[in-house]
Design a protein that fits this description.
single chain, alpha+beta, 8-stranded antiparallel sheet, 8 strands, 45% helix, elongated
Length: 349
Amino acid sequence: MMEGNDGVMNLQTTIQEYITRRYRHSADADLLEPNAISERLSQGVGPAQIWLASDPDDDEDVADGAADFIDDMDSIDDADTAECDAVSGSKAEYVLVDRVDEEDPRLAWVIPLVNNEYIQDGTALVIDQTPLGVAMTAWPCSRMRIPVHVLDVPLKSLPISTAQMIIANRENPDMGVVRGQVPQVARDKRIIDRYVHDMLETFLVWSLACAQLPPLHVAGSSSLRRTPSRGELLRQVVQTLGVDPVEAGQLIEGDAKLTEVQRAALQAAGVSLESAVGRELTLPVDLLVEVEQPAWRQATLYYAQTHGIQIPSARMALAQDAFELAARPSGHGREAWRGALAQVVAGLE
């Protein structure tokens, strides 16, 4: 396996510890089993699923934030402002998927969740039984559209009937879905209000990020073209100049300038960076949609780390490498591009 996956595994371990600490119902046995998680990732994003979401840029901090949640938030009576800061600072949130966006499958409509029934207010719904083995609180009135690439760990699904009840913002005690209560103690209300505010602020940041995704182009259009594989170009630069992958990535992206000696060496080797700097990729729609899926999140993070580039650039570089690997530039469905991306990822290991 690729190095650099410790973050997600530590996070999964932290969640499991939390479930054990706050045991209520029987958590599903395969909730955090690695093979089961891989299988759920391969199935993609769909209605009624529960995910742990976080910004990929925050992956190093997520496990620590979740650990603070375990230690400090077993009950609202033990919480104070500092503890609330520790929790909200993790930038990891649970979500219930309503649906994938019909116009852009890189986006999903989700409802914020919290795995602590003490955190609730009059706009929330409390779900008595969940696959996590603990009650959870949902805010259906704060449904938002977010990029699917912030979805990280798939944690199984609610029954469709329960999910539909939550999405419709309706309580049904017979189904274990009841309206949240407004805290009666002023201090508790202040802490919960701040927690909910910080949580929704994180979701708002994710929602605004939808506009930052590269535009979807029509697959098979005349503007579709092949460009040099970034992975191959990186290898050529490393080999020719004797630099490490991070420095090579900076040279390719134009973040660092070539010396005259380096420029002459590249020219002698027939390696050109001109097509790489500031290039705009035009890739098939299905490929652009597939590379955003949570299944490729860890590969994207690893690519960014080893190539010395930002995560969005790494995601596009993975897509370009898969495009280059494919036999034809168009006519591929998501399944075919999934296979091409898997081959690229296998080459990273």
